[in-house]
Structure to design on (110 residues):
């Protein structure tokens, strides 16, 4: 059985993809430790999502948390906040502030 958790994080997908590569196919405890001690931006948010997925699997599906493995981590583009920055001579530039969609699947190892 796979447990799914998904959410939106205010960080670019490129930065989040680097962090997601670290925890793919790791046991849950190792993945939690990696995210807890990682200093990259967004690792705290992924750590929170892993804790949420752990709680869901334990409470809703009665899975053993000691046997859980991070099966799959999907990172994709989310929405953009579009802002304007004033420039010289009455011009302006557009600034995009990206969001990322992340989905984490946990699976019980046999």
């Amino acid at each position: 059985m796979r447990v799914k958790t998904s959410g939106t994080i205010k960080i670019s997908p490129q930065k989040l993809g680097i962090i997601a590569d670290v925890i793919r196919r790791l046991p849950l405890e190792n993945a939690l430790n990696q995210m807890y001690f990682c200093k990259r931006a967004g690792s705290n948010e992924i750590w929170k999502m892993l804790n949420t997925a752990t709680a869901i699997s334990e409470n809703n599906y009665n899975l053993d948390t000691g046997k859980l493995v991070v099966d799959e981590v999907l990172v994709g583009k989310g929405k953009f906040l579009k802002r304007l920055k004033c420039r010289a001579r009455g011009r302006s530039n557009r600034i995009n502030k990206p969001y990322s969609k992340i989905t984490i699947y946990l699976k019980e190892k046999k």
